[in-house]
Amino acid sequence: MPSSPASGIAPSPVKSLLAIRLTAMGDIIQRIHVTAALARQLPECRITWLVRDRFAPVTRIFASVHDTIPWSREAGLRGFFDVWRALRRRRFDVVWNMHGMLRDSTMALFARAPEKWMQRSRRWPQRHFGFRQLEIPAALHDAHVVTRQQIYLQALGLSTAIPHPLELRPGPVFDWQPFFSGDPLRTFVICTDSSKPAKNWPGFEALTHLILERIPESRVAWCAGRQTALLRPPPAGRFLNLTGVSLEETVALIRQPSVFIGNDTGPTHLAGAVGNRVLALFGPTSPRRYAPWPVGGPRSQVLVAPDRRLERLDPETVFAALDELRHRG
């Protein structure tokens, strides 16, 4: 392969890659866009992902991910030993340490690979770990996460074009899937929570009733990490509550053909990656850096709350944006 003038690295042909990003779901998905770009250009390359075990159902649905090594944080030192053992059984041509925190960097050291790369960071003295440091141009320091991660492709002399939507593997079948047999533009999936309270919009129940009342034959499904329920009963047969189910089942729900609404959270990024229409609600976080990929695409819309405070975002405003999104050509 050609060398990359930006990185100064002259890579050898890559037949096996280890990508490491232990957490969180949205961050993992954003980086899978980049490893999917590598897979498209180097189809002979075997790509392995190392993630926290709770996120393994996410990486395993993508066709560009050939293997997933799960790490159990709850297992303590035993979890680190299991990762060490799994990595020592394999050989890689290159490791992409795509987070750079202490845990990720330590696990990268376990891997048998001649090249180990990470982005240069002021937070952690990587030079003591022997990683090659990839410099992000100053003009991209405030760019989207996916754009910044493209430096890994450049270091291999590859195109930075990101495929979209991402190709998926067949998934498990659940008994609720006939709920999605109707018109995808009249079927909505809403993720009602986020890992951080400041990123949670409080208007999802009001939005749900607006959809059911104003869009004929519409259906709404809810997903969330925490179990919750509508306070006012919905019309029979038009509401599906899958809050509190396993992540594997949540992933199966999100990949159904539908229009997705959610906060700046992992399920929102997954819905965008699989190609569904997505309305993303942003409060304190920056859509310029964290909007669902591809940014500004015809199948996604970002709505930023007034003063970056989600409690000030009116359900009528959200419904209007949603209705416009579903009517796009």
Query: CATH homologous superfamily of the largest domain, by name?
Result: Glycogen Phosphorylase B
| Helix and strand sequence | EHEHEHEHEEHHEHEEHEHEHEH
Rg, Cα atoms, Å: 21 Å
Number of strands: 12
Low-confidence stretches: 1-11
3D structure, described in words:
The structure is a single chain. With 329 residues, the protein is an alpha/beta fold. The protein folds into two domains: 16-155, Glycogen Phosphorylase B (Rossmann fold), CATH 3.40.50; 177-326, Rossmann fold (3-Layer(aba) Sandwich). It is built from eleven helices and twelve strands. It has helices spanning 25-41, 56-59, 77-88, 102-110, 145-149, 151-155, 204-214, 247-254, 266-273, 287-290, 315-326, and strands spanning 16-20, 46-52, 67-71, 94-97, 115-119, 132-134, 187-191, 219-224, 239-243, 259-263, 277-282, 300-304. It has a six-stranded parallel beta sheet, with helices on both faces. Strands 9-8-7-10-11-12 form a six-stranded parallel beta sheet, with helices on both faces. Helix 1 (25-41) links the parallel strand 1 (16-20) and strand 2 (46-52). Helix 7 (204-214) packs across helix 11. The longest helix has 17 residues, at 25-41. The protein is globular.
Would you spell out the secondary-structure blueprint of this structure?
Elements: E1 16-20, H1 25-41, E2 46-52, H2 56-59, E3 67-71, H3 77-88, E4 94-97, H4 102-110, E5 115-119, E6 132-134, H5 145-149, H6 151-155, E7 187-191, H7 204-214, E8 219-224, E9 239-243, H8 247-254, E10 259-263, H9 266-273, E11 277-282, H10 287-290, E12 300-304, H11 315-326
Parallel strand pairs: 1-2, 1-4, 2-3, 4-5, 5-6, 7-8, 7-10, 8-9, 10-11, 11-12
